[in-house]
Predict the structure of Transposase for transposon Tn5.
Amino acid sequence: MKVLDNAQWVEEHFSNCDLGDPRRNKRLQTVAKNMLDAPDQSLCKQNTKWSDLKAAYGLFNRPEATLDSIASSHWNKTRDTKPGRYLLISDTTDIDHFSHKATTGLGMLGSGVGRGFQLHNCLMYDCDNEQIVGEAGAILFKRKHVPKDETRTQRLKRYRESSLWGDLVDRIGPSPEGSQWVHVFDRGGDSFETMCHIVRTGDDWVIRASRLSRKVIDNRGEKVSLRQAVGNAMRVGTYELSLRSRPGVKARTATMEILVAEVTFPRPSQVSPKIRSFGIEEITMNVVVVREVNAPKGVSSIEWVLLTSLPAATLEDAWQVVSDYENRWLIEEYHKVLKSGCNLEGHSLRSADRLEAQIALTSVIGVRLFQLKLVGRNDQTAKARNRIPHAWLRCLAVYRPKLKLTKLTVYEFFRQVANLGGFIGRKSDGEPGWHTIWYGFQKLQLLVAGMELADTKKA
Ligand SMILES: [Mn+2]
């Protein structure tokens, strides 16, 4: 993957936005570029020209600046996948604006003490090239106070947090010709309703089961609990997993076994009117179970029960399902990028509408930062001069005269960037973390900008 410079990247991902006025679209690109140059700073520090800062506030104030209008150009680009295999990893994260007492129009968080939004979004991952494609879609949800005496029927009729999963599947839509899309959800996404939405798009899923007490039909046609079906599952293989130490638990090598079963979920008796209208009476799927055998006493053993539309007859099939689920950490890391890398919760804008525009912009910019991190890690042998913008390399060469640019790999380039941010890179240091990469990246951008300024002065 060739790395674009910040201006090119912004152009590619924001130039098709429609905010109702060409000047406003241009303004969006300026604000986005400034954000990318200094992602964890406040708006004032990102937009150091007075005209840019005015443009940012002006933009966020416009009713046209919504999550959809700002991010959908990027979403569309992400969904237009080339033939291949892709994971669509979704999750919900709380965006907490509790500390900004003056902000109006926020929803509830937690038990009602917090204030903010739930951001439910989906990250597209290219399995063949091991790269982040982008954000495939997002929904912002404001939880409202629910009356204590709400009936089950009333609950099923209203938009709930559990509806976000299926709703986002619908908004993202089906995969294009030649692409296999696999939706990967944690236990929050386990419901018959959510699966119905994926059945309708014709795509695949790997979802961690949340309720093992639910009734299913096993392969002998008997009605059992999912827990019982798991108990009767067939073992297809074992493997060793080394687990790092945690507070109070020693490091150990765990023996894991993989079991598979086929089950049918009947439609629950009470479902929302929408699901009733789909007319899906039952869904047959595979269950892949990964669990630790002979876990030491007093240690809670690992067990994943994964529900999937993918084949699971052989060990190889089952492995694929497990490794798809193992990639779920990517969305958690992406949410970390948004919160700690882009300081998403730190902006003190005065209304929920302005925050929505801010969140939209950040969710797209966060993709770029996440991509840069993975490009560095995965492209261990690719030469930097073929992939990295020329100006960045030129700048680095001036700053570090001993560096041999012709030999530099993409991987080494990003270690050098982290180096600018304070990463020392001793053997024991491992891979550079977020903050050092960011600080290094910001420093490099500043050096590049300085060099370009000097060039124009001379001309
Ligand atoms: Mn979750």
